């Protein structure tokens, strides 16, 4: 019996989605979420460690990963052969443009005439309050290809049109669970792997 499941879904764009076309797209069906306790039991079954010991280690790994990325480090998890599986790292986004600077300096000048009106953005205008920090993650190319090569897929029920909109970006999933229980598609995947955060790792 195949372990991986997928299904076809129908997307029917509304009038406020210019450029979108009716389509049938595939999505993976996720049955369960494996958390620390589940992982600990599986690891304990393959090793000489107790499940509670493994669970403590897994929890510590999660804490340490967070500590490391808070220090601007990239954390990479590898298999026994040293093949990169998952890489987690801090990401930042933010910008300021000429129009914003003109608007802001004009308003400031109205309050304080000593403030110079400027129409060109400078480095000093990109202040920390304009930044948004998130975590990014990439999936190792070899690891992803190994999964694609050996996975066994089974098609399950078709799902008719709903409100899920396939995303065109490959950074993050386009939402939470769908009404029918499956994860919404990210729409930006490729055969090279890469789940979130801009790219893949060798």
Give an account of the 3D structure.
With 202 residues, this protein is α/β, with parallel strands linked by helices. The protein is 27% helix and 21% strand. It is built from four helices and seven strands, in the order ββααββαβαββ. It has helices spanning 36-46, 51-70, 98-111, 141-150; strands spanning 4-11, 23-29, 75-78, 84-93, 132-140, 153-155, 200-201. Strand 3 (75-78) and strand 4 form a beta hairpin. Helix 1 (36-46) crosses helix 2 (51-70). The chain starts with a strand and ends with a strand. The model is unreliable at 168-199 (pLDDT under 50).
Largest pleated sheet: 4 strands, mixed
**What is the string of helix and strand elements?**
EEHHEEHEHEE
Poorly predicted regions = 168-199
Question: What separation lies between the terminal Cα atoms?
Answer: 32 Å
Q: Roughly how many Å is the radius of gyration?
A: 23 Å
Record field, number of beta strands = 7
Strand content of the residues, in percent? 15-25%
Structural class by helix and strand composition: alpha/beta
What is the subunit arrangement here? single chain
* Contiguous helical run count: 4
- Mean pLDDT over the residues: 81
């Amino acid at each position: 019996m195949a372990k991986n499941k997928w299904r076809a879904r129908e997307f029917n764009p509304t009038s406020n989605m210019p450029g979108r076309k009716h389509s049938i797209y595939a999505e993976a069906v996720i049955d369960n979420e494996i958390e620390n306790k589940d992982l600990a039991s599986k690891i304990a079954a393959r090793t000489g460690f107790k499940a509670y010991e493994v669970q403590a280690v897994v929890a510590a790994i999660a804490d340490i990963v967070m500590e490391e990325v808070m220090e601007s480090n990239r954390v990479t998890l590898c298999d026994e052969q040293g093949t990169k599986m998952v890489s987690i790292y801090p990401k930042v986004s933010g910008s300021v443009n000429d129009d914003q600077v003109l608007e802001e300096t004009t308003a400031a000048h109205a309050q304080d005439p000593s403030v110079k009106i400027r129409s060109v953005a400078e480095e000093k205008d990109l202040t920390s309050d304009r930044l948004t920090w998130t975590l990014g993650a990439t999936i190792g190319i070899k690891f992803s290809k190994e999964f694609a090569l050996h996975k066994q897929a089974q098609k399950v029920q078709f799902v008719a049109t709903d409100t899920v909109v396939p995303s065109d970006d490959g950074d993050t999933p386009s939402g939470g669970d769908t009404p029918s229980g499956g994860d919404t598609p990210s729409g930006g995947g490729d055969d090279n792997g890469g789940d979130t955060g801009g790219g893949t790792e060798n």
